[in-house]
Amino acid sequence: xxKRDWLIFLAVAVFLAIFPFIAARISAISHYIDIMVFAGIxxxxxxxxxxxxxxxxxxxxxxxAFFGIGAYTSGILTSHFHWHPLPAIPIGCLLSxxxxxxxxxxxxxxxxxxxxxxxxGFGEIVHIVLNQEVxxxxxxxxxxxxxxxxxxxxxxxxxxxxxxxxxxAALCTLIFCFNVLRxxxxxxxxxxxEEETAADAMGVPTARFKLQVFVLSAVLAAIAGSxxxxxxxxxxxxxxxxxxxxxxxxxxxxxxxxxxxxxxxxTVLLTFIGNEWLRVFADFDILVYGAILxxxxxxxxxxxxxxxxxxxxxxxxx
Amino acid sequence: MDFGAGWVxxxxxxxxxxxxxxxxxxxxxxxxxxxxxxxxxxxxxxMLGGLMAVFFVGTLHFPIPxxxxxxxxxxxxxxxxxxxxxxxxxxxxxxLSLIIITIAVSILLKGAAMFEWGKDPYTxxxxxxxxxxxxxxxxxxxxxxxxxxxxxxxxxxxxxFFHRSMYGKAMLACADNPRAARLSGxxxxxxxxxxxxxSAGIGAAAGAVITPISLMEYDRGALLGLKGFGAAxxxxxxxxxxxxxxxxxxxxxxxxxxxYLSSGYKDAVALLLLLMVLFFKPEGLFGSREAAKxxxx
Lengths: 318, 297
Known about the structure:
The complex is a heterodimer. Chain A is mainly alpha-helical. Chain A is built from 13 helices and 2 strands. Helices cover about 70% and strands about 0% of the residues of chain A. By secondary structure, chain B is mainly α. Chain B has a domain at about 20-220. Chain B has 12 helices and 2 strands, in the order H-H-H-H-E-E-H-H-H-H-H-H-H-H. Chain B has helices at about 5-35, 40-60, 65-85, 95-115, 140-165, 165-175, 180-185, 190-215, 220-235, 240-260, 265-280, 290-295; strands at about 135, 140.
């Protein structure tokens, strides 16, 4: 991370730390804490997707599926088998990583439209499985009786506690991603994004790096899924369908596909748009999502961060 | 398991749905051939075609043939507008942007359909009234004959169009090499518009003709689009007869799986086949490996 990123990081961390105190004082926005918990959870997903799309240049329309694999693994282990929530989280990550590896090995040989279609198809299959395996997932009516998160014997139930846990995790993910991008892997990824053939010719093992980032994005999505499960304590296949995969892509695109800060910014904005500002539209919110997606893709391809003055890291030169 | 009349019945229903997938796949192919873009909103054209036909029959009380034609024309205009007002502004964008843009259009179409028609499924009266024909103890609905007939008609008309007419040949030339086509005086811009018009119209015809059998609702598009793409990929992207054969094959696979294995997983069959094709034979069964290497998969 550059000095500029550390400064932004510090400012963001301080703001996030005091936000609940401000929100709790003002009743009109006291429920913003709840929305921010979701924004933090989704940020972990979109950071992974940002690494994949913005830096490795590979599109995935299946993030909701990995999010779902993590969520349902946690949900099933804790509700059917009465596991403690904490050990269930790494199991979800492992499963998600294994699936991502299995799908990624053949899928990442594809490019552009074909990769998008393959991930779409995979995501839809996961969604069908979640709907059909009623015995395990509860099917369309959902999975219930999921316990809340428990750390050192303390049950985490207050929104504030969740808020701090989730955002600590999100910020750790952010630092981790910044460090990955600074490393040899990060430079290789940018080379792949610029021109894969050239990177290949320079001796960059492109296939391996693309796969690693794909698996990383799936693991991050699975961690977020586990958080989601224990925060909401109810799962429904509807949260893990195509539309949600598109939403994750939109979060990354809105903020700026080549910026980790952009991914977080886009996620927070879109979560507020979805959970708060668009409530009046009810189901018609998809019209608004479609419009935002179209406008961003047409007129703001580098996302909202491109409006801000460009620091060296914002353009990707970490 | 019984292998009696059920077998024939699954064959009929498989051919009918397969014919629809084939039409969706042909829609993909037309646009892909001219622009090298995969239009993720292709499935929404089918949904719109069905619901438009419902609108013309139910609300405006058009006779069925007129409603069918009107639905096809309206949706063709939607396809035209999609290219004219959206995609033409994105000619030089990256593949990722193009994917996102067509997905955005598909969401907008889906949202607009939900706004207009709500979430309920709609039906249409069959094109001709009458008892189903019984063959080997299995019932064949007359509407299924309409579906197969319209698919056959589309395929024949398209092959005449592409091989006999000036416009069709010009479109194929664009597909082959847009720059060379432009240099020899072909208005590539118009050909692109024409491809969207044709593709949307064919999708709409599929939607209108299948609605009496399988009903239609606002959120059908995505899955139809994916399965149609499966057929297009399996047949080899850009290959019309490949798309037809692959579409029918996918429909049959799905129908027999629903009959003998699990009806809940029938939607997964086509998707699994799609993944298998993309993973192991992305040039498709009828596409050429040489050509595939040059394309941007």
